[in-house]
Design brief:
2 copies of one chain form a homodimer. With 116 residues, chain A is of the alpha+beta class. Chain A has a domain of 69 residues: Orthogonal Bundle (Arc Repressor Mutant, subunit A), CATH 1.10.10. Helices cover 66% and strands 12% of the residues of chain A. Chain A contains 5 helices and 3 strands. Chain A has a 3-stranded antiparallel β-sheet with strand order 1-3-2. In chain A, strand 2 and strand 3 form a beta hairpin. In chain A, helix 1 runs antiparallel to helix 4. The model of chain A has no long low-confidence stretch (mean pLDDT 86). Chains A and B meet through helix 1, helix 2 and helix 5 of A and helix 1, helix 2 and helix 5 of B. Chain A binds a DNA duplex (30 and 30 nucleotides) through helix 4.
DNA sequence: GCAATAGTTAGCCATATGGCTAACTTTAGC
DNA sequence: GCTAAAGTTAGCCATATGGCTAACTATTGC
């Protein structure tokens, strides 16, 4: 709560685009240069660089330049924070629905002892 | 790949806002009316309704109106699809880094047998 | 050292997002 | 049936996003 611009904002926003998810996917198989990453996309380089910018700002990827080549790499820890948030939500929902199921169960049991 | 506007787009975009994540969090504890949901936020109702609209469009929540009250509820299956995508990415990255570790390990072993 | 390669910067454009107010529409309650 | 409550619709505004072209910078390789 009191999320005054959480890093999660940037992470989820970054993942909310198919191009960027594809980049993350690709980087899951190993580091790559900007040119390699851009190759599959029918998009001008500057447009593509913006996507990389968003990903890097979010912390999902890291990059460094050696000579004229910039190499990008996944930062799995960041992906992890998002996964964790979602797991927490699911846990909350599941514990609640477990209690609900237990309650419904207890109603059934009561009904039975009442011979109804 | 070939993500011509995947539902994941909407889901991740929806989660990329603290207000909307808070709503999801709140709904994890049980269904609620629009007014109840809106109460914690210093925001005009129409603005708040837009957030609900985004969440519903993404499939993360469901709502129905009875009388003058609209009740919103979490759709955990949708949250699940996003969690699954992330788990897949992690799996990919981990299997790759496992192979990498194994490779490094094999190099060490080789070095050892070479008496170096 | 000159040309090609790999990025980068600047600036334009259309559309989407996230906020607002004001006015309207149903219900629910007295 | 009139008022208050709970949403909804319409329309405005500023900023962000995602795309482009054109022009520039810095390395590399011959």
């Amino acid at each position: 709560m009191a999320n005054y611009c959480s890093p999660l904002d940037e992470v989820f926003l970054a993942l909310g685009d198919p191009t960027r998810r594809a980049i993350v996917s690709r980087l899951g198989t190993g580091a790559a240069s900007v040119k390699e990453l851009a190759a599959p996309f029918a998009m001008a380089l500057p447009s593509f660089m913006k996507h990389l910018g968003v990903l890097e700002r979010s912390g999902l990827i890291r990059s460094k330049k050696q000579g004229r080549i910039r190499t990008c790499e996944l930062e799995p820890a960041t992906l992890r924070t998002a996964e964790t948030w979602m797991a927490e939500q699911r846990a909350m929902w599941e514990s609640r629905s477990d209690r609900l199921a237990a309650y419904v169960e207890s109603l059934h049991a009561k009904e039975k002892t009442n011979g109804h």
